[in-house]
Amino acid sequence: MGQSPIYRRILLKLSGEALAGEQGYGIDPIRASHIAQRVQEVHELGVDVAIVIGGGNLWRGRVGVEQGMDEATADHMGMVATVINALALMDAMERRGMETRVQTAIEMHAVAEPYIRRRALRHLEKRRIVILGGGTGNPNFSTDTAAALRAIEVEAEVLIKATKVDGVYDCDPMTNPDALKFDHLTYMETINRQLQVMDLTAITLCMEHKLPILVLNLWKPTDLRRALFGEKVGTLVTA
């Protein structure tokens, strides 16, 4: 293991389900505390951390659309759900003594700062955890795309997609025991194989800006830390 992390600044993309309890929905404070612990461990190594979190544990826009809801309205509800999750994460982190800022793409002055790139960069330089809620602020864009966009804007050196599986497979490892895990993929391989890494817009953004994507299992206690020291963990997607 190296003496210092190979990344100076990361953007961590979390699904909303990361906060859900056993029932698969809602917010479990214990899960939030576990995420905060993982983040604290890498932050104490000197790594700047920005976070984008989804809202699928509270609301899925496509469910509303399937029932006849206006798509833009359903998407805006999803964006608000991500802000609720961001506040839950903020609380868990601040209870562990970490200085945290929540910024949102949809202005909510009573609970969070508006997202301003230069302010986000300043917070990171001051060693604050920056949690970015509200997606991109626009309907029709996923939180994957928001994560790619924000990672580029805050000058992250890697976008880490933290999931409940230990990398990218050629099929679902939960249902197929013979699923093949990839240690490394190119952006084009990911697109051509239609692998479920991130959506096409997010992968294209990362490819255009040569931003590596690392997919790993957040719930393996040491995987995130090991990845930051350059060990082979999860699946790395690069040019």
Could you please describe the fold and organization of this structure?
This protein is α/β, with parallel strands linked by helices and 239 residues long. 36% of the residues lie in helices and 19% in strands. It contains eight helices and eleven strands. The protein has a nine-stranded mixed beta sheet, with helices on both faces. The longest helix is centred in the middle third of the chain and has 24 residues, at 71-94. The two termini are 25 Å apart. The model has no long low-confidence stretch (mean pLDDT 94).
What is the secondary structure topology, with strand pairs?
Layout: E1 9-14, H1 29-43, E2 48-53, H2 61-66, H3 71-94, E3 100-104, E4 113-114, H4 117-125, E5 129-133, H5 143-153, E6 158-163, E7 168-169, E8 181-182, E9 184-186, H6 187-192, H7 200-208, E10 213-217, H8 223-228, E11 235-238
Parallel strand pairs: 1-2, 1-6, 2-5, 3-4, 3-5, 6-10, 9-11
Antiparallel strand pairs: 7-8, 10-11
Throw out a few tags for this protein:
36% helix, globular, 239 residues, nine-stranded mixed sheet, Carbamate kinase, alpha/beta
> At CATH's second level, what is the architecture?
3-Layer(aba) Sandwich
- Low-confidence segments, given as residue ranges, are none
| Averaged pLDDT | 94
Q: What's the number of domains?
A: 1
* CATH superfamily caption: Acetylglutamate kinase-like
